[in-house]
Amino acid sequence: MSYQIEPIGIVRSPYKEKFAVPRQPGLVPSARSEIVLQGEANALEAVRGLEQFSHLWLLFLFDQNLEAGWRPTVRPPRLGGNERIGVFASRATFRPNGIGMSAVELIGVRQQGSDVIIELGGVDLVDGTPIVDIKPYVPYSDSLPQAHGGFADREPATLPVVFSEQAESQFQGKQLARQRAVITEVLAQDPRPAYKKGKADTKEYAVHLFDYNVKFTVINGVVTVTALDKPIVK
């Protein structure tokens, strides 16, 4: 027996590509995202009472990975990208049905023209991700302080982030306070491949955040933002 799932909304987020998306929700609290509801779900009646809750569960599709299929074992970055474990013991993106879930902060709900929009904080989803369901986070049942997190029992360590003179000059005169905070929090997670961490690395990386190509290096455990390119023309 098979079932068909239709997205009820689309995410709009600062993350324009998979590279540098936070590995878990809430790790980049400054990031603001939104869900634009669509189809029959695009109705104010569907979100009536939602603002009583501070957080939501999002169920979504790893749409960029669906065609690649899945395997029964994966190599989580938290284990250095070398050790294999079962896919169901991980939050890997390559899954049998390509479904993910995130607990995120609810900022508000608004209507813009004919669109109902849910404003969120701490989202870890690529821009354009299809949302298949939204549920309220209920603290008394969903929060389990006694739970054990296995190999992911602790929040990952972060790196200090500094800005080069060139990058600093590109911030001058721009209303980029929130963007700067998001860039800092994203890069502090060290988005490089797991096998690169803890090793000498002089390569300059780039990540597409907001409408900017943010270039950075990681040398001696310090992330340096080297340049913030002009907006990318789409």
From TrEMBL:
Domain TsaA-like, residue spans: 5-146
Keyword terms of this UniProt record: Methyltransferase, S-adenosyl-L-methionine, Transferase
GO terms of molecular function: tRNA (L-threonylcarbamoyladenosine(37)-C2) methyltransferase activity
CDD domains hit by this protein: UPF0066
GO biological process: methylation
Family: Belongs to the tRNA methyltransferase O family.
This protein's name: tRNA (Adenine(37)-N6)-methyltransferase
